[in-house]
Amino acid sequence: MSIFEYNGSALAAMVGKNCFAIASDRRLGVNLQTVATDFQRIFKIHDKLYIGLSGLATDAQTMYQRLVFRHKLYQLREERDMKPQTFASLVSALLYEKRFGPYFCQPVIAGLGDDDVPFICTMDCLGAKELAKDFVVSGTASESLYGACESMYKPNMESEELFETISQALLSSVDRDCLSGWGGHVLLVTPTEVQERTLKGRMD
Predict the structure, then answer these.
(1) What are the residue ranges spanned by the domains of the chain?
(2) Of 2, 74, 82, 109, whose CB has the highest number of CB atoms within 10 Å?
(3) What number is the average pLDDT over the span 87-108?
(4) Entry's Gene3D superfamilies (predicted)?
(5) Percentages (nearest 5) of helix, strand, coil residues in the chain
């Protein structure tokens, strides 16, 4: 079994009309044994920027602390929040720096940039960026997430429709992956507010 599958995970980010949603499952496991059912994989960098970290849970938490530290230094020096594109480059550089003993994480970055244009991207554990204009996925459930998102996604969705779409895609995908599941956690970010919702899923 791959080290990326050790804890199991499912992550997706999707863009709408001047908004984005990022969703993850809530299971923390050790191979097929479930350890926790309320594990957090999506982290806030600032009000309009979030990162989801799939892969090895311990590396995800270490990496998040490193990124918060780097972002706070940036805020002190620049006196402003980091743009999503800049933050994606920072994450990429941090991962590539550790390429000979990498963090076993595959990040999903989602944020609102200039003029509230949504930005999403994902990368592998060495920091190779993959940009998208519709959705990005990562984790052990990524194959079924690709299929579900591909069939459900529509461009320029309003925030409520976007929430419904990403929630259905996540819940139907984790049912096809035994290493992720136990409900979902969805963040819906618009220029004026952030809505955080918890989804109930199958508990088996």
Answers:
(1) 3-180
(2) 109
(3) 93
(4) Glutamine Phosphoribosylpyrophosphate, subunit 1, domain 1
(5) 35, 30, 35
SS3 for 188? strand
Query: 50 and 187 in contact (C-beta within 8 Å)?
Result: yes
Residue 3, Cα to own-chain centre: how many angstroms?
19
Within 10 angstroms of residue 121's Cβ, the number of other Cβ atoms is 22
The type of residue at 167 is: S
Which residues, 6+ apart, have CB-to-CB distance to 122 below 8 Å?
13, 106, 107, 108, 109, 129, 130, 132, 136, 137, 138
| Contact predicate 7/140, CB 8 Å | no
Match 């780097």 to its residue by tokens: 70
**Three-class secondary structure of residue 150 per DSSP:** helix
pLDDT, residue 113, reads: 87
Provide the 3-class DSSP secondary structure of residue 196. strand
* Helix 84-97 with 57-78: angle, nearest 10 deg: 130
What would the CATH number be for the domain defined by 3-180? 3.60.20.10
* pLDDT confidence tier of residue 31, bands split at 50, 70 and 90: confident
Q: How far apart are CA 83 and CA 111, in angstroms?
A: 8
pLDDT of residue 173: 92
Q: Which residues does residue 120 pair with via DSSP β-bridges, in sequence order?
A: 110, 132
Which pair of tokens denotes residue 7? 């804890």
CB 37 within 8 A of CB 82: no
What does residue 37 show for φ and ψ, rounded to 5 degrees? -120, 20
Name the packing angle between helices 159-174 and 142-152 (round to 10°). Answer: 140
